[in-house]
Amino acid sequence: MRDDLETGGAGGPVLRLERIERRYGDLIILQPSDFALKRSETVALLGPSGSGKSSLLHIAGLLEPPSGGEVYIDGRACSGLSDSQRTRLRRDALGFVYQFHHLLPEFSALDNVALPMLIAGRKKAEADREAARLLTALGLGGRLRHQPGQLSGGEQQRTAIARALANRPKILLADEPTGNLDPKTSDVVFDALLEVARAEGLAALIATHDQRLAARMDRVIEIRDQRLQPLRRPAQAPL
């Protein structure tokens, strides 16, 4: 794994944070920091609770503005965008997975995943086919018609991952996506997330507190001393 914060691919990074900072009044959450995410790369974001991982993901996902700096998605500066332009960019380029699945309880797994595509204007038959494909890729081909209450916690979270991928985003942002699951289920869900992200060619920034899971990704960064920094690893013991 590479430890630098700045990395590029053909055509430049799909997500770039330039001198991003976050303050709440006098409280400093994140001092000016840079980060770049290339296409098809998976990056783990580590940091203790309250360190600013969620704030950073919200800024990267255009859900809240930074206190300073600029967010670039596919080379496009986002600070000057209108609300409608930001909404459209979030819909077309970004997928979000949270610790809690937030599925609609009265809808089936298939309908929960198809809904973002219907909102984006795709026909129902096409949306249903794509939803079934994603759910099957995540091991839920036999659970398409089940409502969230009929699914296990891991199945609900895999459904939420499929929903995040419904509109074929370029970037997947995940905030502790397995934090509410037991270790065995967490492994299953995390492996499924990485497998489908890589199969779909997604760039992914995934916040987690679990260094064991983080080690499975291409690169690891952490929020330390209020800045984004490469993970500081202990020296390896001699063989």
Automatic annotation (TrEMBL):
Taxonomic superkingdom: Bacteria
GO CC annotations, alphabetized: plasma membrane
GO molecular function: ATP binding; ATP hydrolysis activity; transmembrane transporter activity
Gene3D superfamilies: P-loop containing nucleotide triphosphate hydrolases (3.40.50.300)
Keywords: ATP-binding, Lipoprotein, Nucleotide-binding, Transport
Domain ABC transporter: 15-239
Family membership noted in the UniProt record: Belongs to the ABC transporter superfamily.
Protein name: Lipoprotein-releasing system ATP-binding protein
Organism expressing this protein natively: Amphiplicatus metriothermophilus
Upper classification of the organism: Bacteria, Pseudomonadati, Pseudomonadota, Alphaproteobacteria, Parvularculales
